[in-house]
Design goal:
Layout: H1 13-31, H2 49-59, H3 66-80, H4 87-103, H5 106-131, H6 135-217, H7 221-250, H8 267-278, E1 283-289, H9 299-319, E2 323-332, E3 335-343, H10 357-368, E4 372-379, E5 385-394, H11 399-402
Parallel strand pairs: 1-2
Antiparallel strand pairs: 2-3, 3-5, 4-5
Helix pairs in contact: 1-2, 1-4, 2-3, 2-4, 3-4, 4-5, 4-6, 5-6, 6-7, 6-9, 6-10, 8-9, 9-10
């Protein structure tokens, strides 16, 4: 079994340069006999070179292993006090202390300044008690300059670096959120455009599909002519709606919904058009507007109510059995209720295919206003079943009510 070879951190090239520069400077000072102390326990000339070399080695680890570098550097600087000493060794130790705070773990970065402060105070008090001389204050000041001051400087640099990193992360998060908002806005705009396009054109296209099928299946000139007349009217109306929608979409200065011109005031014309389109299929249409006189409806609510009625009428033209289709409007308890009922059952004659997008669009409109929508067969008053679409749209305070 082959044991894995231990891996050692590779020193950064900048740290290697700092270590070589410190070692070269220390050798130059040593060659000229420039020491930090005249008396020493180890008076040999070569003795200061050992701490110098070890401190240079610790410098190579200042970035990749700051804790190890600090421990080795602390032991080395203490040992250097027993020799004549070298200024380069002291300077490299200050850099090791600084690097231990900047590149070390957060816990180490917090501990080192407090530890060096206690060491500085301890050295000062100890020498004052021992020497009972003001020189002890100078020794304490030098200890603080060598240990505490680099630690505090490293702490300041690290705090600024962490603050800059936090700001960068916040900027990235802000940009990410902005991009998400942009994507959501684009998606919502596309869905809104799809609803408007479907609601504005589907009614006309459904009538065209039904009457073109009738014209192809019945070999009667009068019926064919009538069907072609309805096809032409719906084609012209659908083209006008498309041009209006495209014009509103191209107008970059337009505000509000693209089809904001559609209001409940045009519901009579919408029902009359459905009457003309559905007469050949045995459909009759009626409008029951039970709204009380009062302040106007908010534009989004009025537009949604119009589009729901329009889509319900379109679905009735496609699928309803012969009979009466009734559109009812009622307002009360802070909501507008739109109800459209149509005969439910098998329908003779041509039918236009459905895609299901109409119900999806109605549910989306109601959901955007925080309302409720029900769509499905229910029991009729006189027996049988009818298909009922019922939308409850909350009505907020209008401009007149706020005044």
């Amino acid at each position: 079994m082959t044991l894995p070879r231990p891996t050692f951190p590779r020193p950064h090239r900048v740290d290697l340069f700092i270590a070589l520069a410190g070692l070269a400077g220390g050798l130059l000072l040593w060659s000229y006999g420039l020491y930090t102390s005249n008396s020493a326990l180890l008076g040999q000339k070569w003795a200061p070179l050992i701490p110098l070399a070890v401190m240079a080695a610790a410098e190579t680890l200042r970035r990749v292993a700051p804790h190890t570098a600090l421990v080795v550097g602390t032991v080395t600087i203490v040992g250097d006090q027993f020799t004549h000493g070298n200024l380069a060794t002291v300077l490299m130790f200050t850099d090791v202390v600084y690097a231990s705070v900047v590149y070390g773990t957060p816990a180490q970065a917090r501990r080192v300044p407090y530890t060096t402060a206690l060491v500085t105070v301890g050295v000062t008090v100890g020498f004052l008690v021992w020497w009972q001389n003001a020189i002890a204050l100078l020794v304490g000041a030098l200890t603080g300059i060598v240990s505490f001051l680099p630690a505090v400087t490293g702490s300041i640099v690290r705090n600024h670096r962490d603050a800059a990193e936090s700001a960068r992360l916040r900027a990235e998060q802000t940009a990410l959120l902005a991009e998400m908002d942009r994507v959501q806005a684009v998606t919502a705009e596309r869905a809104r455009m799809a609803r408007e396009l479907h609601d504005m054109v589907a009614n006309h296209l459904s009538a065209i599909a039904i009457h073109s099928t009738a014209a192809l299946s019945l070999d009667e000139p009068a019926t064919t002519r009538q069907a072609l007349t309805v096809i032409r009217e719906n084609s012209v109306a659908g083209l006008a709606e498309m041009r209006r929608l495209i014009g509103l979409l191209r107008d970059s200065g337009a505000a509000g919904e693209p089809a904001a011109t559609a209001t409940l005031a045009g519901l009579d014309a919408l029902v009359a058009q459905a009457e003309a389109n559905g007469a050949a299929s045995g459909l009759r249409f009626a409008l029951d507007d039970a709204r009380r006189d009062g302040p106007g409806l908010p534009a989004p609510v009025e537009l949604a109510a119009y589009r729901i009625a329009q889509e319900s009428l379109t679905n009735a033209l496609k699928h309803a059995a012969p009979g009466e289709v009734r559109v009812a409007l009622a307002r009360g308890d802070g909501a507008l209720t739109v109800t459209v009922t149509s005969p439910y059952g098998e329908r003779p004659g041509p039918r236009a295919p459905g895609s299901g997008a109409g119900l999806v669009g109605m549910r989306e409109r109601v959901a955007l206003l925080g309302g409720e929508l029900e769509a499905g067969p229910v029991a009729a008053d006189g027996g049988g079943k009818v298909w009922r679409v019922r939308a409850v749209l909350p009505v907020g305070a209008s401009e007149e009510e706020r005044v």
